[in-house]
Specification:
This protein is an alpha+beta fold. It has helices at about 25-30, 35-45, 80-85, 90, 95-105, 115-120; strands at about 20, 45-50, 50-55, 65, 70. The strands form two sheets. It has a three-stranded antiparallel beta sheet with strand order 1-3-2. A two-stranded antiparallel ribbon has the order 4-5. The longest helix has 10 residues, at about 25-30. The radius of gyration is 15 Å and the shape is elongated. The protein starts with 18 loop residues before the first strand and ends with a helix.
């Protein structure tokens, strides 16, 4: 039984926290968008706590989430987006995993926490 299969619903793209981006990701995404890294940062990032994050739009979704087209930078998405839902906090704490499972339709509701953790390592 597969623990996760993305439904491209955008639930994981919603939230005020934003997605942290590293310099190598900034360069890769900027190139994909045909922008300079500085232009990408000015247009799409915000600084918080000494780090750069992809900004959220007024609707609370990542600025690259498009309801019709889904993620506009999917081929070059940042590491946190690629990891979802296999985040360390979801692999360590069953309660956090249960909340994510209830919110994300891609997490198999019939999968046990133990199977989820095991599949994260595969």
């Amino acid at each position: 039984m597969k623990a996760f299969e993305c439904k491209q619903c955008g639930t994981c793209c919603y939230g005020e926290g934003g997605v942290p981006v590293e310099s190598s990701e900034i360069e890769r995404i900027a190139c994909f968008l045909a922008l300079t890294p500085d232009s990408f940062i000015q247009q799409y990032c915000q600084e918080k706590h000494g780090r750069l994050y992809i900004a959220s739009g007024a609707d609370g979704f990542c600025v690259f989430h498009d309801q019709g087209k889904r993620c506009r930078i999917h081929p070059v998405k940042p590491r946190p987006c690629s990891l979802w839902p296999f985040y360390p906090t979801l692999l360590k704490e069953k309660e956090n995993w249960e909340m994510a499972r209830d919110a994300c339709p891609g997490i198999n509701a019939k999968c046990s926490f133990e199977d989820f953790v095991r599949q994260s390592k595969e």
